[in-house]
Write a structure and sequence with these properties.
Blueprint (H helix, E strand, L loop, with lengths): L5 H7 L8 H19 L9 E5 L5 E2 L2 E8 L1 E6 L11 E4 L6 E6 L17 E6 L8 H17 L10 E2 L5 E2 L6 H9 L6
């Protein structure tokens, strides 16, 4: 899912025809992938998906540690098939989104478990992303970067390395626009 719409990109570039829509959509998809690579985050989830976790390896005491950020938890199914109610756990970090883990409350009688095998025993369903809808600065970065990708297609193919012109001037290759690169650095997920 691209973080900006094709219609908005077309309007921003002042393109009235739909003849380049496939190129524009590819630019939006590339921009979205670039943003996710640079920030180490997925910024939007349009639907619930389920991820599975090991009831031994992914559990630290009463805490189930996720392998990705989740903006909203719909359900948790323990390894024995029992549903884990939201009243039985707290998200980590507390009072913040996205969550990277859940900890069973001390007054909960639930424990992380499994029936036949711990691998992929626990299922967590929800919106696996930093946010459900991308923040405005991510949308702007996607639009700006997609426009840059779209306009780059007119550059000669040999601009991926420095070139010396006949009069001795050195032309350096294009880089991602600084108004995109800077904000993305500040949004990068810190991992240990």
């Amino acid at each position: 899912m691209a973080y900006e719409t094709l219609a908005n990109l077309r309007r921003w570039l002042n393109i009235t025809s739909s003849s380049d829509d496939d190129i524009l959509q590819a630019a939006l998809d590339d921009a979205t992938a670039h943003i996710e690579r640079e920030t180490l985050r997925v910024w939007a989830a349009i639907a619930d998906t389920t991820r599975r976790f090991d009831a031994v390896v992914d559990v630290r005491g009463r805490t189930l540690v996720f392998d990705a950020e989740i903006a909203s938890i719909t359900s948790i199914t323990n390894g024995n098939g029992a549903s884990v109610a939201a009243s039985q756990y707290v998200t980590e970090p507390r009072n913040a989104s996205p969550a990277t883990a859940v900890t069973l409350k001390l007054n909960s009688t639930t424990e992380w478990t499994w029936s036949t095998s711990p691998e992929d025993a626990i299922a967590v369903t929800g919106r696996w992303a930093a946010t459900i809808t991308p923040p405005d600065d991510i949308v702007r970065a996607c639009r700006r970067l997609a426009a840059w990708y779209y306009l780059q297609r007119r550059n000669p193919d040999d601009l991926d390395r420095p070139i010396v012109t006949a009069d001795g001037m050195t032309l350096t290759p294009s880089r991602v626009p600084s108004d995109v690169a800077g904000p993305l650095r500040s949004r990068r997920r810190i991992t240990l």
